[in-house]
Amino acid sequence: MGLDKDRRIGRHAILLLLSEDPLHQLSKLEKSNWKACLGKVGSMEAHKVVAAIETAAKKNQIIKTDVYRESHALYHAIIEALHGVTRGQVQLGSVHRTVGLTFAVLRGNPYENEHEGDWLAVSLYGTIGAPVKGSEHEAIGLGINHI
Question: Which InterPro entries match (predicted)?
Fold first, then answer.
């Protein structure tokens, strides 16, 4: 039942996010029957970050819009990734912080056994800081959840 080291979904989500050539990375993932999308979001409100990622995942058919457990799994992966960006305190505007993030959403089976089913990974990279230009720093986050 092992995790195939070449199919580590979190690693691939981060590589896709940070890639100099995301189209090449996307084509490699598609050959493995994985689905992925990329996007950007900036906000002082965490719910807007969640909504942007959810919308991109639905629009790009990463998750099915009419299956609750898929939206639920995505939500938990997003929140876990936001914990990384916000250092465990998923608060933005209420504590005078803003983010400018690029995100990747990846869906696939990281296991050798196909019956293990699909998992979702959300990776976030960008800046967080006071809502004053030049008062931000880099941050990265990763969330992984099973469907």
Answer: Regulatory_HutP, Regulatory_HutP_bacillales, Regulatory_HutP_sf
